[in-house]
Amino acid sequence: MRLISDRDLRNTPGKVREALAQGDVVVTSRGKPYALMLPITDPDRLDEALLLASRLRAQLALSRIRAKAATGDMDRMSMEDIDAEIRAERRERKARTP
C-alpha cells in the first residue's frame, strides 16, 4: 500500500497510475488519509468490485455500531429507541450527501 497526496493526484496522475499498478493506494490530504484506491484488474467485473466495496462499508458501519453499543449500554435499548437511532443516522447521512 502506498500513500499519495491529493496534490500528487491532481498534478501527477501518472504517478498514481504507477502506484496502483503495484497495489492499493491511500490518498491523503495534509498527511491524513481520506480515500482508498484499489486497482481494477478485470474491468468486466467492475460492478462486482463496487458491490463488494458497498458491503465492506456496511460491515464497517455495523462494527462501529456494535462497538458503540457495547460501551454505552445501548445493548439494552428498546426497539423504539433503536428505530429512532436509525432514523437519526439516516437524517445525518442524508444531510452530509451533496
**Roughly how many Å is the radius of gyration?**
18 Å
Regarding quaternary structure, how should these chains be classified?
single chain
Number of domains: 2
Largest sheet: 3 strands, mixed
Q: Between the first and last Cα atoms, what is the distance in angstroms?
A: 29 Å
Mean pLDDT across residues: 89
Total helical elements? 4
What order do the strands of the largest sheet run in, or round the barrel if closed?
Answer: 1-2-3
Strand segment tally? 3
What order do the helices and strands follow?
EHHEEHH
Structural class: alpha+beta
Question: What shape does the CA trace take?
Answer: elongated
Helix content: 55-70%
Entry summary:
The chain is α+β, with helices and mostly antiparallel strands.
